[in-house]
Design a protein that fits this description.
The chain is of the alpha+beta class. The chain is built from 4 helices and 9 strands; from the N terminus they run αβαββββαββββα.
Length: 163
Amino acid sequence: MKKIMITMGVLSFIYGSSSAQEIKESEVPVAVKEAFKKQFPNVKDVDWEKEGSNYEAEFELVQVPMDGKGKKREIEKSVEYTANGELIQLEEEVEVVSLPAAINEYVNKNYPGKKIKEASKITEANGTVKYEAEVEKQDLIFDANGAFLEKEATKDDDDKKKN
């Protein structure tokens, strides 16, 4: 019994330290905060997380239609940096209808009757673009052309596992 408890404790520690953890802005390295302010000088309301040794800022921006006549829309964004303030990637919520057609085709074929709940565009520091489509409590990752790459558990699933 004692071995089981020790093993469970070690596994909990490993799992807990590998997933994102909310942190206070005061815990974010100065280089990361400076890089964020330089990239997004007008953003004030930011939620910070630590993901492994990296730092992620989550925030919302208001998108105004180019013609000024449509509805304003809040766009969720997140940006991830190394501890030295080097950009890793930017993730931006997009409308499902703006995804490459190949992504919808993949979902229709592999998840019949299921819909894409949320979608986002991920731009890595080197300019590589990927798309993320949430289906059935998992994130499906695609390349810029809509070719399937991998699947991951959603953050919501991670949060439920922790609790």
